[in-house]
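Pipeline run #58 for the internal structure catalog. This entry was flagged by the ingest filter as a single-chain record with no existing model, so it goes straight to prediction. Upstream metadata was stripped on purpose; only the residue string is passed forward. Reviewer on rotation: M.T. Logging verbosity set to normal.
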Amino acid sequence: MPEGSLLRRFLMTALISSSLAFAVGATPPPPPVPTAAPVPAGIGQLPTVLVYPFDVQTGSDPRIGIAIGQILAQEMAAAGGITVLPVPQGIKRANFLDNAHAAHADFYISGYVTPVGDSAAVVEQVVSVESGVILFSQTAQVASVADVASQSLLAREQILAVVGRGTENVQTRPTNTPAPTSTNGAQVPIQGLGSIVSSVFGKHKGGRTPTPGPVVKPSRGVIVAPVTASGAIGSTDLTSAGRELYFAMNTHYNVQMTSITSNPQQSADTICGSNRDNTVATGTLAASSEHHKTQYQFDLFVYTCFGATLAHHTGKASTIKNAVNAAVLAYATAHPDNS
């Protein structure tokens, strides 16, 4: 009897346990709490661009470079799809990257402008603030404010392509484009900018002043690579030498710049790429003190796209500009066809 009673209690306990297990198992689990899907980085944020005043050839009105920077910034902002910061002034080229970092820009645009008769040669560069690498560079001959403004559109397209936006953010331009703003927020009339830029094109009131005809340049172009130091030379002087090399070469040849900073002779093939009808120009800058005055020496090296040395000329002067000009003039005299 005790065994039968014990067996019945065991069976009852098992039955109750199985019933509870069935009930628990049959109860559906509570639905999971929905969580927001992660938002991909950059979505909803426009790329931020900083446009610097363009460098102008020594002796030219610096307001031309400021006006070109203002026009480019205005046109890019009007086209939409990017955030354009106010055009800064008084920033040295050597500090462009650091200043862009401090302004939280994603890209910055800088360049050079060289008056040529009734037009000007403008080189425009788009730089990644994150890497400091030139992502895009173009050289154009401009003869009006409209020409300058058009240069902003291609740079904008390149920036949107880099951030993966393509043309999806292209907006219809408003009929009335707002006037560009200076760094202090004051409105700068577009007519004022136009007159400043037009001054470099030889357009003056009271009749057209005769200007020299366009310079006929050889078909083979020049790609300018960064200048390096020979001895103790500061970054500001190297930047100045590179700028003067571009301007001096552009007087005689069709010039563009490269973002490649490695040894130009060893990298000539990469610098030229598929366009073999070019030479690569670079140089070294040195400074010495003679009779308590600084003397500069610029050694110009020109290479073929295969890395062979085409020429080497040296210029010496009391200014970087004159030293570079002397070396380039010697090359242009010896190689008028850049070959």
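catalog note: The first helix runs from residue 2 to 26.
catalog note: Confidence is low (pLDDT under 50) at residues 17-26, 33-43, 166-192, 203-213.
status: ready for reviewer M.T.
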